[in-house]
Amino acid sequence: MSATRVLLVTRNLPPLLGGMERLNLQLAMALAERAETHVLGPMGAEAYLPPTVTLHAVPLRPLPRFLASAFARTMALALRLRPEWIVAGSALTAPMALAAARVSGARAAAYAHGLDLAVPHPVYRALWHPAIRRLDRLVANSGYTAGLARALGVPDGRLAIVHPGVDLPPPDPQARARFRVRHGLGERPVLLSVGRLTARKGLREFVREVLPRVVARRPDAVLVVVGDVPKDALHAQAQMPEAILEDARRLGRDRNLRFTGPLVGPALDEAWYAADVHVFPVREIPGDPEGFGMVAIEAAAHGVPTVAYATGGVPDAVAHGQSGYLVPPGDAAAFADAVLRLLDAPLDEAGIRAFAKGFAWEVFGERVRQVLQTTPLPVGGDR
């Protein structure tokens, strides 16, 4: 990357929890390896950013306050710092990144996650889509998301695909036993679901439609759910744990379901190591796509295979037959069969981990820097 100073503008940073937040943290760190990096982000993020990154904090809530504060601060910082690139951590902040770039002579880029290109709200489409089309670079998290960008009119010359990355954890031979003892799982087959409990993630439908089919063949199987309802998501319909558990009770499968709540760090690593199969039953919901599926890469990094519906950008995150199995969207019988197949005949763990290595954060950082080094169209050109 040839830039010497970069400004990253994003709402999605810790202390918020989620895949987008982890990605933006890694994005800031990757930029800081080659350039003086400033971040316009939420209060509290300074505890997670490295000392080489300067945070310019604005209030996270409510959303209108964040947008107004972030826009004003971004414009002021662009004029004062004169960065070579202003990067939006998602399409949400793309308009302010573009406006600040135009007044300061910088280039503007954004990282697109899928949903932020598909939000159906007419005001968002009227105001955000033109800004997205005029960016000097749009980095998509998957081939599916790149397709959404092309449908909006983003030229291929300004479009790049950089998949999200993953930490590659060291082996921990005792982690499986520790987690299973703590949660009283013994040697039961463990299906693991990790992530926010939203309608798109499809956990309630999995409990209704897939889990009974698995338990019919493997009565001791248990679904362990790591996660909680979203508290700060902008476009997500929650699935409440109580409702999911009530569905399991009505089906007589409540003994086959456990909720742990959110887990992070070593506690989450232990959950991964304890699992036999990661289940990712993402639903196809118009206007609410799954842009990639970072959690499937996290599973692979721990040697755990994934079964997922082949929807949105998920096929980019699962190597069928190597890191898991992809099944037709909504086909509960095929999903259950794939889970049972993995329980009966596990995939090679070394092959699963090898797939994950191609998504290491170091690879992500280098690809992002390469995208920002490529010469974009001249400022003021055809937009």
Helix content: 40-55%
Strands, total number: 13
| SSE series | EHEEHEHEHHEHEHEHHEHEHEHEEHHH
| Spans where pLDDT lies below 50 across 5 or more residues | 377-383
Largest sheet: 7 strands, parallel
Care to describe what's here?
Strands 3-2-1-4-5-6-7 form a 7-stranded parallel sheet, with helices on both faces. Strands 10-9-8-11-12-13 form a 6-stranded parallel sheet, sandwiched between helices. It is an alpha/beta fold and 383 residues long. It is built from 15 helices and 13 strands. The chain is elongated. Strand 6 (137-140), helix 6 (143-152) and strand 7 (159-161) form a beta-alpha-beta unit.
What's the short version?
The chain has 383 residues and is an alpha/beta fold.
Architecture blueprint of SSEs:
Layout: E1 5-9, H1 19-32, E2 36-42, E3 53-58, H2 63-81, E4 85-88, H3 94-104, E5 107-112, H4 115-118, H5 122-134, E6 137-140, H6 143-152, E7 159-161, H7 175-182, E8 190-194, H8 203-209, H9 211-217, E9 222-226, H10 241-250, E10 257-261, H11 265-274, E11 277-280, H12 294-301, E12 306-309, E13 324-327, H13 332-344, H14 349-357, H15 361-373
Parallel strand pairs: 1-2, 1-4, 2-3, 4-5, 5-6, 6-7, 8-9, 8-11, 9-10, 11-12, 12-13
